[in-house]
Input
Amino acid sequence: MSQPTVIFLLGPTASGKTALACALVDAVRDMSHIELVSVDSALVYRDMNIGTAKPAPAVLAKYPHRLIDLIAPTEAYSAAVFCRDARAAVADIVARGNVPLLVGGTMMYVKALLEGLSSMPAASKAVRALIESDASRLGWPAMHARLAAIDGATAARLDPNDSQRIQRALEVYDVSGVPLSVLQTRDKSSAPARNDFPYAATLIALVPADRVALHARIGVRFDNMLADGLVNEVRQLRTRYALTADMPSMRAVGYRQVWQFLDGASSEAQMREDGVAATRQLAKRQLTWLRSMPHSEVFDALAPTVAAQVTARVRAILGGRAAIT
Output
């Protein structure tokens, strides 16, 4: 018996993933019923709508997305938890004879879902770069405090200025979702834990051929977020929740820069410049992850015909399925 079909629609920020995913639901309705599953580490947070580019309520009502609005901004989410939640969502969709379409840009989650979480993950340049960026802004004692919140045992044995070991411990957690101290207590003679994905997965990658055009689109999108009230959204979040700048939700691109602005650490113009620059760096990391994923099918996200091209490919994938009435 062939494995059930699962499709991934992946791409960097501002590549048009959400709009295309919703269009696909309608475009193949005569063949199969597609259900959407979000693969986004920021969309899991409730009340963080503008800065995460969360689909509008009307869109979500027409095109429901799994794994959106799961937790409060004061909570943490990890690749391991995502794998648990995504597997449950996919299994439910497949059990009802429908097709899961996983859409988003958190490539670490995709890799974990497809390849499993190893007991001691390899180094990740993308994650390390983000940690180093935070450390240059906050200092290593602050990063040590961040580690203490997720892995007290490891933090307790490290000096607050031991940058190399703090960095590695944070990297291990960000990649695997498991504290370093927990991994180190496991039986070293056992093989790394694997969690093979029991479905026929097709990875569709939206990769803009023109990086300059993508950067322009990112700038416009960030300006639209500001016009839609991003600063006020962060202000309200700070009032409603007991947030700190070190929490994962407030380290998200856009929120981090607005937080600094509200604290008086930057001007409005500098906040906008920093936010756009950080979003471009995020897109660069996402593209790096995408390039490391074998067997992905690449489409130019900025091509006028991209929707038609991806629709044709998805219809070809689903061609052997019976229509659902």
About this structure: The CA atoms of residues 9 and 103 lie 5 Å apart. The chain has 14 helices and six strands. The chain has a mean pLDDT of 91. The beta strands are 5-10, 34-39, 65-66, 99-104, 200-206, 297-299.
